[in-house]
Amino acid sequence: MAAQTLPAFGAAVTFNTQRTRAYLLKLPLFTRATVLIIVLTWVLTLVGKSWNWDVKTWGALIPDEISIATLYRINTFPFIHLNIFHTILNIVAFTPLLERFEHEHGTLTSVALFFGPFATIPGLIYVFIERFILHANTPVMGASMWVFLLLGMEAIRTYKTNPYFTISTYNIPTWITPLLLVVVTAALLPSSSFLGHLAGLLVGYGFGLGYLKFLAPPEWALRFIEGKLNLLGRLPHYVSVDQNTFGRFGVLPSSASSAEAGIPFSGVSGGQRLGP
């Protein structure tokens, strides 16, 4: 019997390894690039010490250090992490969320949003509250703000199709789930930024509800850039804005039968975009 368990265990390990490898090979372009930048930034934090360059001090979001000359921090802080544990934890949490977002909205949209409003809005909210309301100067870094932003968007999408989940006899709104996760994270990891996570979550709610979708790049511009530069043909793992969609904010029917039955596209959550 003992001789039989080892091959079975080995087969399971091989199967899991194959699934992991297959998943990694399917990652779209921007997701791959983001994970690579996070890893390379962590390497730079180690190598930079020999160059007398503190990458964390240079790129972290430090409220009192924000000025016209240092606005780059708004885009650099999500890629910088405290230590290897922080780096791995955020990569594991962020990768599947970003991969799903990119597959749904396209690579070019993802680049524009994550280097645009998805970074600047929660970052500036954090700086404003820290600097002018709390009169504090707590530095933050890490991709967890993006994690909660995407969780907020997912929670709103889930709420539209499944408004409640039941615990005992209580109906709890599904949109509140990431908010509870923010509180739990703050309790389990006291060094994490409750305010930073909350800022990301609020922006995710805003995009999920459609209030902030006007900040997304116009579809005609994305189509023009894709076609002009032939990005889909030149870049491996690139996801087109139009791939499997009826417009960037449109959705597909879940099946041919649902389309024939006249079910409106906006009622199907699987392909829903940034706004309702």
TrEMBL record:
InterPro entries given for it?
Answer: Peptidase_S54_rhomboid_dom, Rhomboid-like_sf
Catalysed reactions, as listed in the record:
Cleaves type-1 transmembrane domains using a catalytic dyad composed of serine and histidine that are contributed by different transmembrane domains
Q: Does the keyword Transmembrane apply?
A: yes
Membrane topology reported for the UniProt record: Multi-pass membrane protein
Q: Which residues cross the membrane?
A: 29-48, 79-98, 110-129, 135-152, 164-188, 194-214
Ubl conjugation among keywords? no
User: E.C. number, please?
Assistant: 3.4.21.105
Which keywords has UniProt assigned to this entry?
A: Hydrolase, Membrane, Protease, Transmembrane, Transmembrane helix
Protein origin, superkingdom = Eukaryota
Main localization category: membrane
Q: Which residues form the Peptidase S54 rhomboid domain?
A: 70-212
- The signal peptide here is none
The family line of this record is: Belongs to the peptidase S54 family.
Q: What is this protein called?
A: rhomboid protease
Read off the lineage from the record: Eukaryota, Fungi, Dikarya, Ascomycota, Pezizomycotina
